[in-house]
Amino acid sequence: MIKGVWKTKEHFEVEAIGSNKFVFHFLSITDRRRVFSGGPWCYQNKLLVLEEPTRVGDYSKMSFSKAPFWVQLHNIPVFCMSKAVGSILGNMVGLVQEVECNQDELCLGTFIRVRVIIDISKPLKRILKVRLGTDKELFTILHIYEHFPELCFHCGLFGHPLKECPKRGALQGDNLKLKYCARIKAPILSLGETSLQKKRRQPSSSPSSHAPSYGNLITR
Predict the structure, then answer these.
(1) DSSP secondary structure of 67-82
(2) DSSP letter assigned to residue 185
(3) Given its phi and psi angles, is residue 147 left (phi above 0), alpha (psi -120 to 50 degrees) or beta?
(4) Could you tell me which residues are beta bridge partners of residue 116?
(5) Which pTM was predicted?
(6) Distance of alpha carbon 152 from alpha carbon 53, whole angstroms
(7) Residue of 123, 140, 143, 133 whose CA lies nearest to 185
(8) Which of 3, 55, 127, 131 could be 136's S-S partner, Cβ–Cβ 3.0 to 4.6 Å?
(9) In Å, how far from its chain's centre is CA 141?
């Protein structure tokens, strides 16, 4: 059950409104904020896309085409390990929400970690080729995604396995050249709460916790 995935403190109701579409009614505004600031959320290895309605009941116009992901950007030179560079590169992947860095806006470690909103109606981006530094040297930046649901390694879309890909046609075995592999998925790590999540838990003038939230379980 999705309730076990979110581990909310208070009860919430789930209402089915169509094929793989649901309404979530939260009793706790804290639970609601935590769920929306977290993710990506998966249920039975399928991506669960959440949206907040512009008006109550107006779910028919929702596209459910955007989802947040934490993306690791690898092969970045040491002199570019900063929040500014992370924001630039992250915006080439999707819409940046956060760049993980220290108080000096430096990114420590071997990669830059960014949280971005990605258009899941398009194939997932695997690499970026960009010129960095004063000499404009060309670098190939690898993307590794965290908390990854099922992905088709042929077309790069969520919602179906490789064997059910509608774009593979009659190609089989050695004739089927895969564009993706398991290395695009990061190992599962125990990660702390980010500054963005902490900020989103703070009291605000956002809609009441009783306002519905909508979700779509992605299957294609």
Answers:
(1) EEEEEEEES--GGG-B
(2) B
(3) left
(4) 69, 96
(5) 0.77
(6) 29
(7) 143
(8) 131
(9) 18
